[in-house]
Amino acid sequence: MVLVSLSKQGMDNMLDICWKYSQKWRYFYNAAKCKVVIFNDRPSKTNRHVFKIGPEPVDVSDSYCHLGIVCSKSLSTKVNIQDNCAKLRGTYFSVVNGGIDVTSVNPIIVRTIY
Predict the structure, then answer these.
(1) Closest of 31, 20, 17, 44 to residue 9, by C-alpha
(2) pTM for this structure?
(3) Where are the alpha helices (DSSP H) in 1-114?
(4) Could you tell me which of 68, 83, 86, 71 has the C-alpha nearest to residue 35?
């Protein structure tokens, strides 16, 4: 589940709604697995954000992985591009090293694999 809010008060209200709903239907959120990413936040020593889901505090993090996509607080896509390129290289080399003879395969399929 992803919650998005423009303010800390809005996020606190949504977390409270989720907590009350979970209490009503008798399931629990694991606060240790939850993260809050504050996008474009100005660093301040006096303004420490504290978020809670029920009685448990939720950690504030610089990045979070949701459905295999890394979201960083700077909204950079560099990490996602590097990870996907590494996966693609690994897939390509495993297919090529798997014994496929390039001369016996349709050139369009070879181009697609490449």
Answers:
(1) 17
(2) 0.66
(3) 8-24, 78-96, 107-113
(4) 71
